[in-house]
């Protein structure tokens, strides 16, 4: 899971995947993308998340999707 960019702990939002060092769920980022919002808007709304964390999550998702498709 994108190395140390994402963390899970039963003490943080009951184990929900969050951006490391924050209480911001990764699912919230996915919801923003699904709604057509851009990275800058997400970063404005959640200033505890860093751009490099978003990019790392997207890179990891790309890696998983490409590997699953045999590419």
Give an account of the 3D structure.
The protein is globular, with a radius of gyration of 13 Å. The protein contains 3 helices and 2 strands, in the order E-E-H-H-H. The chain is mainly α. The protein has helices at 26-34, 39-45, 51-68; strands at 6-7, 18-19. The two termini are 20 Å apart.
* Proportion of residues in β-strands: 5-15%
**CATH architecture descriptor text:** Orthogonal Bundle
Instruction: Report the CATH topology name.
Output: Arc Repressor Mutant, subunit A
Domains counted in the coordinates: how many?
Answer: 1
**What is the topology, as strand order, of the major beta sheet?**
1-2
The poorly predicted ranges are none
Main β sheet profile: 2 strands, antiparallel
CATH superfamily: Winged helix-like DNA-binding domain superfamily/Winged helix DNA-binding domain
Number of helices, counting only DSSP H or I runs of 4 residues or more: 3
Short description:
With 71 residues, the chain is mainly alpha-helical. It has helices at residues 26-34, 39-45, 51-68, and strands at residues 6-7, 18-19.
Layout of secondary structure:
Blueprint lengths: L5 E2 L10 E2 L6 H9 L4 H7 L5 H18 L3
Antiparallel strand pairs: 1-2
Tag the structure with descriptive keywords:
71 residues, Arc Repressor Mutant, subunit A, two-stranded antiparallel ribbon, 2 strands, 48% helix, globular
């Amino acid at each position: 899971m994108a190395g140390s960019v994402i963390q899970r702990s039963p003490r943080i939002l009951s184990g929900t995947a969050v951006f490391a060092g924050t209480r911001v769920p990764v699912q919230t980022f996915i919801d923003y993308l699904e709604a057509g919002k851009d990275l800058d808007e997400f970063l404005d709304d959640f200033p505890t998340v860093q751009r490099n964390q978003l990019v790392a999550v997207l890179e990891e998702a790309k890696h998983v999707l490409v590997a699953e498709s045999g590419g």
